[in-house]
Specification:
The structure is a single chain. This protein has a single domain, classed as Galactose-binding lectin (Jelly Rolls, Sandwich). 0% of the residues lie in helices and 51% in strands. The chain has no helices and 15 strands. It has a seven-stranded antiparallel sheet, with no helix packed on it. Strands 1, 3, 4, 6, 11 and 15 form a six-stranded antiparallel sheet that branches. It is globular, with a radius of gyration of 15 Å.
Length: 171
């Protein structure tokens, strides 16, 4: 049975926190709002000195038995990455588990299999155990596509799925 992580029906469903590249000297800016049943992540990406902006929320979930995440998204063609935190640490740091998500100008359901999530620390790949879906602690979205300029990503829902193979945007 799919596990719904976020439906964005209420602005206070979760506390979404923006983390911009200013933590490393960058000048990107991201903003998040939950309105009209969607999460809207907007801002400006500046690749010089950083090149990322992200938003994340705590969500404890056991997704064991599920095959991946399903998101209904639109974003004008700019790809972003979805992040799951399962609490894994390496080299004294939290291991980031991220996978790419394509967007189009129209709403599309995108499936991201857990096997697509890659492990990194501060953007550098690391050798770590695979993502543990039974220990999800938070969900995040990252924009780091290397293109300067304004962006807008909207998410209608985030939930798990079981069964059919992963689908790309529009699939």
């Amino acid at each position: 049975m799919p596990v719904t992580l976020f439906t964005f029906d209420r602005a206070d469903e979760a506390d979404w926190i923006v983390v911009n590249d200013g933590v490393m000297g960058g000048r990107s800016s991201g903003f998040v709002a939950v309105q009209d049943g969607t999460l809207r992540f907007t801002g400006t990406l500046v690749t010089q000195g950083g090149g990322f902006t992200s938003v994340r929320a705590r969500r404890d979930a056991d997704l064991s038995g599920e095959d991946g995440l399903e998101l209904r998204v639109r974003g004008g063609g700019r790809p972003f990455e979805v992040e799951l935190d399962d609490g894994t640490r390496g080299y004294g740091r939290t291991v980031s588990r991220r996978a790419p998500v394509a967007t189009t100008a129209d709403w599309a359901v995108v499936r991201v299999p857990f096997s697509a999530f890659r492990s990194s620390i501060f953007g550098r790949p690391v050798n770590a155990p695979p993502l543990d879906p039974s220990r999800i602690r938070s969900v995040g979205l990252y924009l780091l596509d290397g293109r300067d300029g304004a962006f807008r990503v909207e998410v209608d829902y985030i939930r798990s799925y079981r069964g059919a193979a992963g689908m790309g945007a529009g699939g």
